[in-house]
Amino acid sequence: MNRLKKLLGHNETYLGAVIVVFALIITIVNPAFIKLDNLFGLMKSSSGTAILAIGFLLVLLTGDVDVSAPAIAISAQYIAVNTLIAIDSNSLLLAFVIAIVVGLVYGAINAFFITTFKLPALIVTLGTANLFHGGLLEFVGTKAVNTGQLPDAFKVFGHASIFDLTRADGSSYGLSIFIAVVAVLLLVTWLILRFTLMGRGIYAIGGDAESARRAGFNIKRIQYFIYMYVGLLAGIMGILHISLIRYGNPNYIVDTELLRVIAAVVLGGAVITGGKGTLVGTILGVTMITILEKNLVLIGLSSYWQQFFVGLIIVVGVALTHIQATLRSHHKVVVIKSQ
Amino acid sequence: MGELFLEARNISKAYEGVQALDNVGLSLGKGSIHCLVGENGSGKSTLIKIIGGVVTSDAGEIVIDGGHFHHLSAIESIREGIQIIYQDLSLFPNLTVAENISLNQMVERRTQVVDWKEIRAIAERALVELGEEIDLNILVEDLSVARKQVVAIGRALTQNAKLIIMDEPTSAITREEVDHLFEVIHRLKAKGIGTLFVSHKLNEVFEIAETVTVLRDGRKVGDYDASDLTNDKLTFLMTGETIEYHPYTVDSQVVSEPPVLEVRNLTRKDEYTDVSFSVRRGEILGITGLIGSGRTEVALSVCGLNQPHSGEILVESEPVTIGSPRKANQLGISYLPEDRLTQGLFQHQSIGDNTVIAILRRLLSKLGLIDWTEKTRVQDHWVNELAIKTPSAEVSASSLSGGNQQRVVLAKWLATEPKVFFLDGPTIGIDIGSKSNIHEIIRELARKGMAIVMISDEIEEVRNNCNRILIMRKGRIAGEIEDPTSVDDAEIFRQISGKNGSEVPRT
Ligand SMILES: Nc1ncnc2c1ncn2[C@@H]1O[C@H](COP(=O)(O)OP(=O)(O)OP(=O)(O)O)[C@@H](O)[C@H]1O
Ligand SMILES: [Mg+2]
Prior knowledge:
The complex is a heterodimer of chains A (339) and B (507).
Chain A: H1 2-8, H2 11-29, H3 36-61, H4 69-86, H5 92-116, H6 121-140, H7 152-159, E1 161-166, E2 172-176, H8 177-195, H9 197-207, H10 209-214, H11 219-245, H12 257-267, H13 279-295, H14 304-338
Antiparallel strand pairs in A: 1-2
Chain B: E1 4-15, E2 18-29, E3 33-38, H1 44-51, E4 59-64, E5 67-69, H2 74-79, E6 82-85, H3 97-108, H4 116-130, H5 145-158, E7 163-167, H6 175-190, E8 194-198, H7 202-208, E9 211-216, E10 219-225, H8 231-239, E11 261-268, E12 272-279, E13 284-288, H9 295-302, E14 310-315, E15 318-320, H10 325-330, E16 333-336, H11 340-343, H12 351-356, H13 372-385, H14 402-414, E17 420-424, H15 432-447, E18 451-455, H16 459-465, E19 468-473, E20 476-481, H17 489-497
Parallel strand pairs in B: 3-8, 3-9, 6-7, 7-8, 13-18, 13-19, 16-17, 17-18
Antiparallel strand pairs in B: 1-2, 1-4, 4-5, 9-10, 11-12, 11-14, 14-15, 19-20
Bound molecules: adenosine-5'-triphosphate and magnesium ion.
């Protein structure tokens, strides 16, 4: 009973229910949706969004917004791939190392401006996003990397799977290795948030930054950690992205990912003013957005609806958290009494 | 005084337009119980924040256990064994009670990996020490102010402190909880742990203090042995004036039938039962009782914030349903909440904006735009009327001292000029000098025909200002005092607690 009550108190439960209902409807319209190979495909193609969403959540928990992650991701990707091509290397590991280093450095640049000038992260990252991306186009290049030029390591990685299954017609499909990457990142982030003082500090800052300072938390250190972690995630995402589509364009990711990521995290119940939000919610949010985007066409809606729905989700999501907060404060009296 | 633990030497601190502290010194002995008193805005919290390393002083130094600090950081101060209960409590609303109590200790000990069992254990121990029971899993934002204060006190006690500084820790908690706290302070003293205590309730100061330091306008007036002081003398040292109290008598010309507000058999399950009362124009009706007696809950119901399950509310003899605070406002009922700093104040807005927010409609010119001359007039009027200590009404509310922030919220609701005004703890955190000033404003409103319901813990406050007092106990009206001048505080206290003994009230 108590457990049920607790479950009903969570955003995630409702979002989960909505996803199930939605999936059922789509299955009725198109039974192929629920087939394992389709689901595996969806998971693979949404893993990049999931990784960026994890980072976005972390920043949002402190009550800030980092909009530079997509720009970092594409920069990391493009620099890594071009370096590999230039030195004629086929090492995936090296690609990851370069991308991650770029991510960490760019994250540190964000953190430097945010902590030194005590500016809101939104303002700083709006600036650095253009700085990073503009710098990339100006100093690294604007040419696309086509499939032929792309080192094989990426293609192999993009095709690798954790396990394979066979269809009725004898062809096989598998669960992409990307899922393992996302799973590991989720686990690590969860451990950090739940079991380290750094993680609790992130929640504390989101609850009341001044109180966190008075408690003796090293806010600067926490912020460096967060923004560099976002950079790291963006770097990894960049490599996954090019391995997935096997084509590199320095204008990818920047335009497409940001809104989707924000929508997913907000839909997942994270509060825009900080302090509240969970990884489970965020992943459910990504799931919902992915299903929505990939299946609108199925239901007979044009792809312009995609944009419309993502916008709608952000607006409704924000409104819902606000309404919930109001409801909570109305219930407060009851809680005071029932202690 | 014995051996010194902490010395603040020649501390000065200026904010834009205000000299918050001017060459102030403070010496605290090991294990001593020291009180810091002064009017609102006299610099108490600023001095405390400097000792806590969260505000940097312009001049002066802090000496702790022989170590000299010019720029103390928060974590240094904590590691030197100083624990502070800040006036605004500095809790984390989004975290549970357990974590709020334990987290700071983890920071201090440089813990890297969090052990959730330990978090609970630390919190449990702290609450046992205080004799309190609070659900450890509840979020702090869902607690009443009193409970929040208990959590903040618990948090300070769990750490290995050598000095605990409490900046008005008792403004919202009840007598019983204060007693517990004082026991703890004495126990700490026995272990050599000192306390620096700030309160505007002078009876508490006299009860606990060994030494009293008085500040006025950022300067130190002096250090005194508590035994050398009397209530009047201390008031004089703080304010430079003597304050007298006269009971409130209603002007029978104004008090007219029928009542403006009548409540009949109001009941809300688990909170209060069968509550009936009425209030007429010109009356100041007091409602007193322990926390949990249902007094605040009833007020919330009448003000549209807590739906009653049964019963009737009549405004000017018309039965009404009050489903929201908005509806209450339309009917002319306003409510000054108990938890003013979180429920009533926009910290980052200016004092003026905070003051007029509830009456913006009235400030519109014929064109439907805000009339700025009128706005300025209204906000300046209230800044003067309530003697809010600020260089200008245009500065943000966050720059005010705690007591002055309280005044801004009070001003906001006073400006609405309602027909019925519920005041929950009207003078919480307000210094002794200004209390009588605020009481006078309330009386003046009543004289002009407003019906006032004053809810308060402070027996003296209701006895001196109300022409009628209702006493609530366990969700019911347990008694009514028609003529407060005819009873003494002890009698009221007896009725509140429902005890028959002749326990002396210390409120
Ligand atoms: N951050 C700030 N910016 C500007 N002025 C400030 C700031 N903090 C405090 N002050 C000013 O410094 C003076 C002293 O404030 P302080 O909070 O120390 O008073 P206090 O003695 O604690 O009063 P109270 O009893 O009301 O809590 C006040 O005039 C206040 O307005
Ligand atoms: Mg203060």
